[in-house]
């Protein structure tokens, strides 16, 4: 199940520059590494960060989680060479597109 999500996230990240301006992926290997980092962050780090920011998430009716996803996307772009995000807005849009794709595919898989 995790490998399938990783594969789908890899394909989505590789296709993302065609849909979101300001994001570029130089190779499929870069997309594989970025997807692995994002899957790891979403599985290990995100639950802790979500718990720590729970009051802010409640105040914003859950919209702060979009900012958290964008921050993770931006962070991965800063540490992986070959994957660039021009600005934080592009990171938020890219993370939102990846989240929507994963959500749709998750409904078909489950």
Q: How many beta strands in the DSSP annotation?
A: 2
The radius of gyration over CA amounts to 14 Å
Number of helices: 5
Query: How would you sum up the major sheet?
Result: 2 strands, antiparallel
Helix proportion? over 70%
The overall number of domains is 1
Describe this protein's structure.
The protein is mainly alpha-helical. It has one domain (2-109). The protein has 5 helices and 2 strands; from the N terminus they run H-E-H-H-H-E-H. The protein has helices at 2-15, 28-52, 54-59, 64-79, 88-109; strands spanning 23-25, 83-85. It has a two-stranded antiparallel ribbon. The longest helix has 25 residues, at 28-52. The protein is globular, with a radius of gyration of 14 Å. The mean pLDDT is 92.
């Amino acid at each position: 199940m995790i490998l399938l999500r990783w594969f789908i996230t890899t394909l989505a990240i590789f296709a993302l520059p065609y849909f979101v301006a300001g994001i570029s992926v130089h190779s499929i290997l870069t997309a594989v590494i970025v997807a692995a980092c994002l899957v790891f962050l979403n599985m290990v780090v995100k639950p802790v960060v979500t718990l720590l920011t729970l009051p802010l998430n409640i105040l914003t009716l859950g919209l702060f989680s979009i900012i958290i996803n964008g921050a993770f996307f931006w962070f991965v772009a800063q540490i992986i060479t070959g994957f660039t995000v021009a600005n934080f807005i592009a990171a938020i849009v890219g993370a939102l597109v990846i989240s929507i794709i994963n959500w749709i595919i998750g409904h078909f898989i489950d």
